[in-house]
């Protein structure tokens, strides 16, 4: 009847994941330093969050946010495109230098996961008492090309792998390759749900 129609509430959800895409092109030096450029494309809510954070905090604090509390990472230059055009993804171009801590005269170690916005893993605990609500579906993609220093070769390259939740609500892929002194990496993780109940946390944790 009319009263029921007036009280009808509809829930609408956009199931397309909100994308964050990062491309890194970098060179590793024999003195265990890396120099490179990252292109960060942020879409939809990720775009809105980045623009708001930059305008509220200013460039200095925003640069510290990109560094993610890593004192070995130094941002030499930061530039934006499409900041005032909300129909386009926000592009951030970051020139950076990175001291590769833990390296010695024989081995150089580096972590390719930079600037993707994933931050620290908050789900290391074995148990959880509350549901997990990301607010919206997410998709993160990181492409990296890293030139090795002369005289060096890869000791261990992470294997290409695909992992997923039993219901395919989270899919992680890692693809690695090496050719002529260049390492190529691609990481992607897609969340097809934004809400995960505490009862299903063991699967999520795994």
Structure in a nutshell:
With 206 residues, this protein is α+β, with helices and mostly antiparallel strands.
Could you explain how this protein is built, in words?
The chain is globular. The longest helix has 24 residues, at 44-67. It has helices at 2-6, 44-67, 201-205; strands at 18-28, 33-42, 73-81, 90-99, 132-133, 138-147, 161-164, 170-179, 182-191, 195-196. By secondary structure, it is an alpha+beta fold.
Task: Note the gap between the termini.
Answer: 48 Å
Along the chain, the helix and strand elements come as HEEHEEEEEEEEH
Low-confidence stretches: none
Q: Which structural category fits the helices and strands?
A: alpha+beta
Kindly list the characteristics that best describe this protein.
206 residues; 10 strands; two-stranded antiparallel ribbon; globular; single chain; alpha+beta
Topology readout:
Elements: H1 2-6, E1 18-28, E2 33-42, H2 44-67, E3 73-81, E4 90-99, E5 132-133, E6 138-147, E7 161-164, E8 170-179, E9 182-191, E10 195-196, H3 201-205
């Amino acid at each position: 009847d009319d009263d029921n129609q007036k009280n009808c509430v509809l829930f609408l959800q956009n199931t397309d994941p909100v994308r964050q895409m990062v491309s890194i092109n970098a060179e590793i030096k024999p003195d265990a330093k890396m120099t490179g450029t990252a292109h960060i494309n942020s879409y939809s809510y990720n775009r809105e969050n980045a623009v708001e954070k930059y305008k509220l905090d200013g460039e200095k604090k925003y640069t510290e946010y990109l560094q993610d509390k890593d004192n070995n990472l130094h941002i030499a230059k930061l530039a934006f495109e499409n900041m005032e055009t909300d129909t386009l993804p926000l592009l951030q171009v970051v020139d950076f230098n990175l001291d590769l801590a833990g390296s010695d005269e024989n081995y150089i170690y580096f972590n390719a996961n930079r600037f993707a916005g994933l931050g620290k893993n908050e789900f290391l605990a074995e148990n959880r008492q509350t549901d997990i609500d990301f607010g919206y579906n997410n998709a993160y993609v990181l492409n990296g090309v890293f030139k090795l220093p002369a005289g060096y070769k890869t000791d261990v390259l992470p294997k290409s792998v695909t992992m997923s939740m039993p219901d395919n609500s989270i899919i992680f892929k890692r693809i690695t390759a090496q050719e002529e002194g260049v390492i190529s990496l691609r990481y992607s993780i897609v969340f097809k749900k934004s809400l995960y109940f505490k009862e299903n946390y063991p699967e999520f944790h795994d």
